[in-house]
Structure to design on (324 residues):
């Protein structure tokens, strides 16, 4: 979360009082009723069934009322003192869906998954509500995440088996991770490759270190696509997947991503982080199917660099990312 957050209007919908909930982590496959009977030993099985039926239970922030609902390792089950409202979802920013995955163009300001305070307004909750409208037994699984203020391609698996296959092979199956980044300064070189070792301090802030034994190598390639009014639009490709690596590495060379004063104090002309994940290419190790999932550049990004169709043609085509 950024220091700029106090400048932005954040919806209070979905926020919960941690003192009125209890969250349990799942370590092995089981079903919801069995799991909660083991955890809530002060209540009879009959009372646990009433809690579930009364919509006071959520998995990953999404309400669940099926006793036999299947749970898997890493699931988080939350029991609330009050009823958790189920919602119908329409017109979600879904950009791809098949039997194995579902992908959205995540808006800036939306969490990928539930946090300690925010349970209701997350991409996971929205898509869970969506798939359960079709089939009460359907569910989705987290494969990767985007920062709250980063927009763009975000995918979820539709089964535990697909989730495990993708996550366990992620570094090998992903062939292209591409972003648009708007940074301060027009004097950034036309293109470059940033290689740094990144470490994390006690506040979970990432920083560049010269100590190779403490840091992990991060490689970021970029090309400048356009410049105007003191800002540059970059086409960025990741050769590694380190936390906050684009923001940290660009900031390290003096070109901070706009709207992100966690790693500096840049301006905030769009009232959002100037980072958009526009393409994610990968293959499914279970069947070899290849995916190229793309999300268009935000209109607000475009308006910063051209104001007409004629100017729009000046935008250079994104560079081809490395494909292994």
């Amino acid at each position: 979360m950024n220091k700029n957050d106090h400048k932005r209007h954040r919806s209070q919908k979905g926020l919960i009082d941690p003192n009125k909930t209890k969250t349990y982590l799942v370590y092995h496959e089981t079903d919801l009723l069995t799991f909660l009977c083991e955890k809530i030993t002060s209540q009879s099985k009959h009372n646990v069934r009433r809690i579930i039926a009364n919509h006071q239970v959520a998995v990953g922030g999404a309400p669940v009322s099926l006793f036999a609902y299947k749970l898997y390792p890493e699931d988080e089950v939350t029991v609330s003192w009050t009823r958790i409202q189920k919602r119908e979802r329409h017109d979600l920013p879904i950009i791809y869906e098949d039997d194995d995955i579902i992908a959205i163009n995540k808006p800036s300001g939306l969490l990928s998954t539930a946090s300690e305070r925010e349970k209701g307004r997350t991409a996971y909750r929205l898509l869970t509500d969506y798939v359960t409208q079709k089939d009460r037994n359907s569910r989705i699984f987290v494969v990767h995440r985007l920062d709250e203020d980063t927009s763009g391609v975000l995918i979820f698996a539709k089964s535990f088996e697909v989730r495990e296959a993708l996550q366990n092979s992620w570094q090998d199956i992903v062939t292209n991770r591409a972003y648009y980044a708007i940074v301060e300064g027009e004097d950034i070189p036309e293109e470059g490759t940033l290689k740094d070792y990144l470490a994390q301090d006690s506040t979970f802030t990432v920083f560049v270190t010269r100590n190779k034994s403490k840091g992990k190598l991060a490689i970021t390639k970029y090309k400048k696509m356009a410049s105007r009014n003191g800002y540059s639009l970059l086409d960025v490709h990741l050769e590694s997947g380190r936390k906050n690596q684009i923001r940290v590495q660009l900031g390290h060379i003096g070109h901070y991503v706009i709207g992100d004063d966690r790693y500096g104090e840049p301006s905030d002309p769009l009232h959002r982080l100037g980072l958009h994940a526009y393409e994610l290419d990968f293959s499914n190790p279970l069947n070899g199917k290849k995916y190229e999932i793309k999300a268009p550049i935000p209109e607000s990004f475009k308006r910063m660099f051209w104001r007409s169709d004629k100017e729009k043609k000046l935008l250079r085509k994104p560079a081809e990312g490395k494909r292994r």
